[in-house]
Amino acid sequence: MSTTNTIADGFVRPTEAGEQYWAMGSLVTIIVPAGATGGRFAVIEHIVPPTGGPPPHTHTGIEYLHVLDGTFDSWMGDLGRAVPSPVGTTIFVPPGLPHTTRNVGTQPGRLLSVYAPGGDEEFFRVIGTPVA
Question: Which of 15, 36, 49, 51 pairs as cysteine with 5 (C-beta 3.0–4.6 A)?
């Protein structure tokens, strides 16, 4: 294993090495961009303020979310029923399924997202404001 960003050798990439953006009221850190994995996947951390979360949306690939801190509600499919999603919850979203999450707590919450294949992180680069 190395500290480089090549998937063939493996790599170690600390969170602080990621690109950060303010997007939709959340702090988004692209921890592992698709370019570091040959496009196979991307890993992103989202720090979401109370009442924050994205509008309903879909992806062409899969999205895996894991609640690291805070309390979220999740919606999938017809978006008619909120599913409580506290710390430790895993949320798996197949391609094309409408979904969203909302921080229903009183403190910022943290989500870890894995997108496969990678590339969805480009959305945050386009709509976000880079953090110096």
Answer: 36
Q: How do residues 21-78 score in pLDDT, each as one tens digit?
A: 999 999 999 999 999 899 999 999 999 999 999 999 999 999 999 999 999 999 999 8
pLDDT digits (tens, 9 = 90+) for 97-120: 999 999 999 999 999 999 999 999
CA atoms within 13 A on the CB side of 128: 22
Of the candidates 95, 131, 109, the one whose C-alpha atom is nearest the C-alpha of residue 53 is 109
Say if residues 27 and 19 touch (Cβ distance below 8 Å): no
Determine the Cα–Cα distance for residues 48 and 33; give it in Å rounded to an integer: 20
Residue 105's closest CA among 94, 124, 89, 81?
Answer: 89
pTM of the model: 0.89
- The amino acid that residue 25 corresponds to is G
Geometric angle at alpha carbon 100, from 39 and 69, rounded to 5°? 85
Nearest-CA neighbor of 76 among 27, 89, 126? 89
The answer to whether the beta carbons of residues 36 and 61 sit under 8 Å apart is no
